[in-house]
Amino acid sequence: xxxxxxxxxxxxxxxxxxxxxxxxxxxxxxxxxxxxxxxxxxxxxxxxxxxxxxxxxxxxxxxxxxxxxxxxxxxxxxxxxxxxxxxxxxxxxxxxxxxxxxxxxxxxxxxxxxxxxxxxxxxxxxxxxxxxxxxxxxxxxxxxxxxxxxxxxxxxxxxxxxxxxxxxxxxxxxxx
Length: 176
What we know:
By secondary structure, the protein is of the alpha+beta class. Helices cover 26% and strands 28% of the residues.
């Protein structure tokens, strides 16, 4: 495995980059290059101050995401989800969400309060993970990315229009 010094930090692409709107293709090769990519994604996520990062956010249209809701505090909380599928959801929660591809944009989004996800690990082995509250939100948010969906696609049309207007203003001012 690559040493920490050799890991590449990937730039997070911002909305409206077209890669963010495309569903990712399934990962079919589970090799050393994939393990290196996963390590680079964790490092890139930490540098960007996030708790989740999906491959499309670094311009890779693949069904791969990494999550660490503890943000480095608990190594056991690090999750690698390859080709994830939502198996079951329950309940609902409405909380504020942000996204590394939409910096400085935060809106309340309704999500399931509990979720069960089936995915593959770096070796291609299938496993299931269950999450509630913040972990459920992170799992659903990152899987949305793999399906070409952003959290602003899950808010009301009026709120989305206000967000898009804010983004256009920031783009015009060279702040985006």
